[in-house]
Amino acid sequence: MMPVGLLLGLLLAGLVFWVMWRQTSMPAMIRTALRQDEFSMVYQPVVELATGRWVGLEALMRWHRPDGTMVSPDVFIPAAERSGQISALTAWVAERVLTETRALLQADPQFHLAINVTGDDLLDGRFHASLSTLLQRHGVAASQLIGEITERVFMHTGQTGAQIHALRALGMRIAIDDFGTGYSSLAYLTRLELDYLKIDKTFVDPIGTGAVTANVVSHIIAMAQSLGLTMIAEGVETEAQADFLRAQGVQQAQGWLFARPMPIEEVRQHMAKGAT
Ligand code: C2E
Ligand code: CA
Ligand code: CA
Ligand code: CA
């Protein structure tokens, strides 16, 4: 029998090693992944609730490792934010999505593409200028691009407010992402220039379940309406949720009920068949 003290010591050493390994190897893995093209993009359709028509796409990143495993964006995006690599990822995403979607966007000037933008991107004073160059190079109108920004970013406004202003001056649209999950100050909502409010899945889930939390979504909707923001409900999985949101005046939605995120070839096939 191993003494308990030794066993605990070994466990602790293992834990410390694991934590250190995660911290040191993740940035290196991300660097390698960028170099060796392990990242790819999928696109989730955004539908107009009144008609079911596809009005746009949200671009979402995927990481398939050479060993066959997948790393979730909920793991590698926060890791890249911590290690200061997120701006490199956003730059990669912007280039890739415009390459993949420009034909679709040019074919329908009303169709939009949303990308996720982080706090670091907004703190980079050249972000809007590099996006502008990229849009011109790909021949895509800025008005077709939506930048999705999470609430957390607004904890340090000031700088970010100026960058949002610059993006909107280009003609880009801004969506507040994961609304209601983060920083609950409503002051920034009135202060910042926003176009869309994305209702987080947390508030869509309880619709129709009879849970008290089901009422919260009605308040979010009323607030978005009073601010004149277009609403996009996230994570819509049932007809009951879609019916409720439609009846409440929510204009657009995303969710497995309509379509899962898919590679660009699949988007093209659906659209060629007249999914929109
Ligand atoms: P998000 O921006 O809130 O994206 C929505 C997430 O909900 C996506 O997860 C999507 O696949 C998932 N989803 C959509 N419809 C449904 C549904 O009906 N049911 C359920 N259960 N899930 C649904 P995903 O792709 O795993 O991305 C997770 C998060 O990672 C994103 O949350 C976003 O914050 C971040 N992320 C993903 N791609 C990028 C990227 O290119 N750049 C940045 N900065 N962040 C990204
Ligand atoms: Ca998003
Ligand atoms: Ca979201
Ligand atoms: Ca989310």
From TrEMBL:
Signal peptide interval = none
User: Where found?
Assistant: Cell membrane
User: Locate the EAL domain: which residues?
Assistant: 23-275
Q: Which parts pass through the membrane?
A: 1-21
What highest taxon heads this organism's lineage? Bacteria
- Protein's name according to its UniProt entry: cyclic-guanylate-specific phosphodiesterase
Q: Which organism is it from?
A: Paenacidovorax caeni
